[in-house]
Amino acid sequence: MVSQPKRGTMENVDVLLACIGLLMTLTSRVHGTNILSCPKEVNIKLGEEFVLRCDISDNRRSIYWFNGTDTSDVPIIWIENEVPGGEAYGKAEFNITSEGYLVFINPGLFHERIYTLLVYYRDGSQETVTTKVNVNITPEPPCPFISACPLNCEECHLQVDNSGGLLCSVTGIRPKADIAWEVFNQPGVRTSIGRPEYKQNEDADTWNASVIITYDVDICDGSVVFNCSLLDAIGFHGTRSVRLHGNDACIPTPTESGHLVIVLISTGLMIITILLLLIIFRRSQCRTSRRPIQNEDGHQHDDVPLESHPLNSTKSRPTTKKVDAKQLISSLSEHYKKFLYVKPLPWGEAVEITNLYTSCDCEIRYEKGGTATATSEDLFNDDFLSDNKRVLIVADLGYGKTTFAQHTMARWITLKDGSIFVHVPLKDVGRNTELSDIIRNMLPPSSLISCLDIEDILSKNKCHILLDGLDELGMSEVKQDDKQSTNDTVSCNNRLMEKCTDDIDTGGKGNRSRLTVNSLLQNDIRDSFQDIRLWVTSRELDEGKNAIGLPFAGVTFSGFNDAQVREYITKTCQYYSGLRGSQAVDVHESDKLITRDLEQVRNEATGLCTPEGADIESGKEDEIERLVKKSLDMNEIVQDFVHTPLLLSMVIHIITLKISQPDGPTKNVNVYKLTTIVRMIITCLECRYFLKIGRKSEQKEITAVESALGRAAFKQKMGVDVMAREEWDKLIGKQHVDTALAIGLLKQSKDIGKGIAQITKLVTSSYTGIQFYHQYFQEFLAAQHVPSDKQEEKEFDQFLKVCNDDKTLRYFRFMTGSDHERVKKVMNKLYESDKMWNNLIDCMFEDENVTRVKRLIEKISKKGRLFGQKANIKVLNLHSQHHQAALRHFCDLCRKFNMTIHMMTFREDCSVPFMESCFLPSLDRLVFYDMDITEDKFITIMEAMSKQIDPPKITQFVRGATPDTFSDSSKDRILVANKTISRTMEVLKKKSGEQSGTDAFFFKKLNLETVEWQKKWLPSGE
Q1: With left for phi above 0 and alpha for psi between -120 and 50, is residue 807 left, alpha or beta?
Q2: For the chain, which end, N or C, has fewer CB atoms within 10 Å of the first or last residue's CB respectively?
Q3: Does the predicted TM-score (pTM) go above 0.85?
């Protein structure tokens, strides 16, 4: 036998080894040895930000992260010389910390793969390491569910008879985990545990698991505990306990009396006989306690048939008393509570609908005739409800149909008026699906309410039924086609069961008439269901297809008005302020466009004293709201989407989140960049599509659709207008058209347009064609397309020759914002022409490649222009808020890189107020050309120059009119401004070591002591 070392000895050895390892690590770092290590495998939660931390030496030079193991591919994100960059940098998917850690902002299933870290060291060497990332999904709540127990993870207490059964289940977990009952050695406990059942949800790549335990215990005077556990569950608590207590009717276990045994046996036989009679009666009432929903083609939905669980079948559920409407209302209320949340941002957290819901404008066409303009909240008025029993609510994508449905649910739960409210997402059902089946599938597995109970309740109570998404009615049938091959056995078994029960119901004469989706839509309802109010939501419908039967009132949502936008902003700001409490409000560097304090920045740059009270007051809701509104007013890109609630709300949340949480998930998002806004809007639409179809594994399909649309838009020079469906099918393929319409990249149109084939004829439908949802979508997708042959290269060169219309310029901005392969070619073309410099500045604003932008500014600053002339930036288009933001950004970069610009020329009246909110770069000369300068404008310019970090050496007014004289008060203000300018220039000259002496400011020289004009003057050499 080998002797074991003493425990104390082993502990000493472990400590010694740990110390040696630590010493070696510290020594290697001191001497510059390269160190690189990452975890071999990590588990992250779906949708929860995760930082992949690695041990990286301080003597690193560059850090690159790759998808997969191929480091010859383009890295997704990197740090070069302490500057972050890459295709994914600044977007909503990845980020990188200053230490080089990879940040998953909103992990999805498509992020599950191997990632490779490549590090270049300062000694010229390099090293790689790989990490496998697994994406896990945690159930809600994060523990197994036990039948008849509350929906939480606390120990459950139940009063039960001496015998019975419990079902333990979990749905939607990833990865698969084994489920099992744990029974402790407790006296008088006899149990039987069934075989665990597992089912994979292929669409979402998740698992459902369940297992049953039956028990026979003596607990009249005590309790027993069972544990249901998920073995090897990752990322959450995998055990739930249930404690069983005896109820008042508990029968004690027999001890001595044989008579008592006989009585018990007799009683048992009687109970069995009653149960058998109840089973027969139940089967005659309802075809099944819960059956898989069928659509009109006989396809079944992917709901787990409750008949597969013994506890959910009729024979194991004893009838207690007649079911009333209150039980159904209570169960539906609990079901709906899970859906009363919205996600304004695809990667953000869910927000309760009551915190944000804002009514929108709508047009009403009453059932009895007449029209009116109202708000969506007016639909709940008693007069409207009593006069309009059937309502079709129509709205374009993103106009609030889904949010309105959630608001209606929340309102019903709060109102508690005794009516029955049924919300039916039509994407999950077929036309022939029965309403009782739909409702039964909403109820918990332990519910005793049968299909026949539901129909009885609906016939005796006021009902409000909301069929949500008429345009998506066939979506479930498409989903089922993919699953048919794996579900054949289950489908056949259930069909046999339904046919058998039909014969029992009707004496073998076939199905009896019941309330179906189609009968509701076509107003074909039996007399017993007359107290039903029906609302149907949909995107625009072809009026000639009779999707809903007459009569009905029509409501069209038309988006937010100005007051509703302000209301939504207020609610959003209040939500984030309440969420973060009294956390200080700070403004991120990229938000200085919103709240820049000229005096504060100037003083910091020149070393002068800092005025008190310059910072934003902390924790003020009204301050956050003011900044958000100011940002929206300045952001003209947002105005293009202001009438679409979905898109507008997303931008509002991004801006609010940036201001209220400067270091939050949107800190690197610049909402003034056109590329950022459009990319995030498209991402939001795609995330909504994934949620609707119930799967996130179709990113390749989305990429293919975007690629096809981008190529089509590129080939047609972003001029794809309204075209007939047949032409779109030829252009990108029928399946791509269907997907693009479902996402919202394309939309149906009633306009008459000319397409590739010069389509001018009307089609039979009320829709004449299909077009891009927004012109920006067409240009953005075209900018993602890379010319693949000589012909496409020629077509791209044609864009460069035009390069002056708004459409082409936005295309170039999207290219630079997307880091297109031809960006350098575009930038050089714009640089070569003075007339294109304003467009160049707009493109530089979109560009995330700091190195490329810096080189361009160096060319402008240092290199001579054509014929030896120095650079003169002739500023135009300042009426555009976006161009103002781009020019501020350009000026900021010039100062950051210490670049001096020879001359900037302004020609527009709006340039005067612009001066008040802009820090100019170091300028040899500032020129106001051909402008009428009033006394007030002159003072504004002087005071703006006094607040500059580096005032221009010479300010000129050329060809325009200037005041001949100044009032005494104006002279005083000019003198104060001039003293500040002189003081600032003295400080700067001392810092740079230059000699002072430049004090001429105007083309007509102004005596700054008397504030009077002298003769025309030009500095020598100019």
Answers
A1: alpha
A2: N
A3: no
